[in-house]
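subagent[fold] <- orchestrator: predict structure for attached chain, return tokens only, no commentary.
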Amino acid sequence: MKILAVGDLIGEGSIPKLKKDLENIQIAENIDFTIVNGENISQGMGMTTKAFNELCKLKIDAITMGNHTWAKKDIFSFIDNPIIIRPANYSNNVPGHGYTIFEKENKKIAVISLIGRVEINVLSENPFLCVDEILNKIEADIIIIDFHAEATGEKLSMGNYVDGRVTAIFGTHTHVPTADEQILKNGTGYITDIGMTGPVNSILGMSKDVAMKRMVTSLPERYKVAEGEYILNGIVFDIDDNTNKVKKLYRISM
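subagent[fold] -> orchestrator:
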């Protein structure tokens, strides 16, 4: 089985990019299951009903979220759809699912979303204790984690913490793909960050002028999604059908 994970969708321009290239990638790479992180799809923060409906028309199996899950109030009208997976370590009283178990190609595939706590201004529970709780109660052939976190050290710590207990873990949020894709000691496929599906001529998908002004002046300035050509970043996990372990993994950039 091959699983494709696509990096954070930045702005509405990511939708035509997916329409143009996603199916071609799925065919060329023989993809069986696709995960996308959609938390930045609407004006760079959150997801509207319109964007959600557009994604549902594509061959996408799971949509993970992150620190901007609640940025658009539309989310409350579809957050309980099992295809949407918000961070599991949000407070217990929030709506939605922190993980979903899908059935595909005679396999049970669990997709878990977690959010980091280092340099992320979001109230959340300990992701390490949260993942223990989930792994102790679910039964699945394949388990994939999207760890939406800022700090590389926190992501590496999580990767090694779940090594051997999950099939694969990939990082999102920083929008810059890392070159450390690897199979960890106990067999878990890992990469610190898979990058973004966003504007090429940008700073993390946002307008360069706005981003630089914030850095230079230290004054608040509302971010806006950059314009122009889009790039799609992601990773493919090639999983052995007999052992349910990652045989190899490789980055996608288009």
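orchestrator: received. Logging for downstream: The radius of gyration is 17 Å. The chain has five helices and 14 strands.
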